[in-house]
Amino acid sequence: MSVQGDWIRILMPTIQQYVGAVNSGLWQAGDLSGVRLTSWLRDTTRNAQVGGSPSSQHLVALATDWAGSFDRLQFIKAMNAQGLQAIDEGSHVHVQAFAAGTLRRLGVFQ
Ligand SMILES: [Zn+2]
Description:
Blueprint: H1 7-28, E1 35-39, H2 44-49, E2 63-68, H3 72-81, E3 85-88, E4 93-96, H4 102-106
Antiparallel strand pairs: 1-2, 2-4, 3-4
Helix pairs in contact: 1-3
Bound molecules: zinc ion.
Zinc ion is lined by residues 39, 58, 63, 65, 94.
């Protein structure tokens, strides 16, 4: 599976919306002095190295990972309130733009 060429031009407005929504979520998430952004855009090699899904939204800059010491429940609620999908993965909280499988259905991945 690979990302279709030209994706960044097509998805750039969506990426900008995603970043805006994450930023709004961060403002609502309370004390984030202990949070670290640990992953955003990954190429397919890096994505495979970290065990990411072949259709991971990290491949198109529509997912971020957040680690460190912070109130995860409040963080997840704040991201969900922005319409984002936030999932506690144990070592980090993963925040993606769309429900799993959405980009595959839209033909972003082949
Ligand atoms: Zn992630």
